[in-house]
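Bench notes, bay 3.
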Amino acid sequence: MSEYIFRFNSALVFISTFLTVGVVIRLLQGRLWSRYWYFFCFLVFALVRLLVVNIVPLSRKSYSVFFITTEAINLVLYVLITLEIYSLLFERYPGIQSVSRWVTLAALGTSLLVATASLKPDAASKSQNLALDYVLIADRGVLSGMAVLILLMSLFLAWYPVSLPRNVVTHSILFGVYFLAKASVVLVRNLSSTYVSKSYNIAISVVGSICLFLWLLRLRPSGEAVLQVIGHQWNRADEEKLIRQLEQVNKALTRSARE
């Protein structure tokens, strides 16, 4: 059974790598890399990380240092990607985008504190205070915080019938799913047996590959011009009223920022 899991996981790694390369090429060919810059950096960094692991011979200690360092970089990229998504979602409302940035960072800090409080089961399950263990625990905390922040933004957009480019809608949803999957696999890895952890990791790898495939399929230059309304399906009069309210708030915040 362990050999079967190893072979299947190796196949998933190959598929995931192939799809990651495909998404990077799609972003380059469609000239979308600059618009989704931090996401593009995240994908390139993932490829470089995988290349180093498979080419450079690393001892157990060296690999631990390498993992901790690169995982810390990943956490920073997760935060930057989430803020990038926030900017894209509120691109048409610069007043709200600018003034609310500090509110967003405060919400991010709060969500991270809540996520950190939920890490006690992880800490209790550890018999040794290894740096690697703490990195894995922090990993889940940051990922959970990012997912909460994306969820809060999604709830706002679910109420207001805002028109957004199809690419932005696709990217926001897929990365939200990726965040939840990544955070959950770290939790299971910390709390479960090795066999359960490997099996669950494979399941989440499948989810990640599906997300990469959908990114490859849906992210196109034409998707920047096609608008979608993802908010609540109000009647026409109510929609116009909500949009007017949103625009009035945006104008008021823009004037306040200039004064």
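Next record in the batch:
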Amino acid sequence: MVQETGNNPIDFSKTKNYILSIRLSTDGFSFCIYDPNRNETVSTCKQKLNATISLTANLKQVFNEVNFLNHHYKHVYVVVSNERFTQIPNELFEAKDVEQLFYYNHPQIKNETILFNSSSQTQVTTLFAIDKSSFQLIKTYFPEASFHAETHLFNEYFIDNERNWNKNRMCVNYKKDSIDVFCYDNNTLLLINSFDVKQKEDGIFYLLGIWKQLNFDQEKDELLIKGEVSEEEFFIEELKKYILEIKIDSKETNVELQTLLKYENNKWNI
């Protein structure tokens, strides 16, 4: 059953003025309708995956159940959240080589499409995979939809929101069963990686291992954790034993949509 929330009724006569954001992840989907004229979210909904059927069958079911997915929108953004991504400098990227570059770093899987996002701000291109049947289904409903890697958007967000730093920092996108790790020397990207984290100890091990590998300072450099996490959690308490400067950002903000809207308004390429 799709869980829908929202303080405002959807005026289906105005959906051509709204922005629809669709997030695809390994554990389910989420949808957000945003009204740029009122600068507010109209409605959101979430749907967990039914593990007994395919990803595409799950999507078909949602499109059949959720009325607002059968309307036209000003923009449709699809954000893909998974570990099948890789990043290279813009200067080394050529679109004709996208599959060759991607499969250099990942094992080949049947029935997937390789897409990419390039940023003129960070000069980084992110290559990422999406299930081919799901991609085709979404394009059937929304031919003009644009697809974006979650890690690409978070990299833009972290750099854009921390431009005045003069030290190393590690930024973490903290999720239920995984973490995405972004490391910077000032505003220069050093590393991006994603890890499955079934146990909190695993996340601590990965973060401290990267911290040591990059020779970050335990007293001067900073760790920023973005997501649903509190100061009192075991995960944070353990990290505080080794890293002095830890900042927690647990505010519920749609980072992906926020970043896309900002770049659209500034006419930047992302």
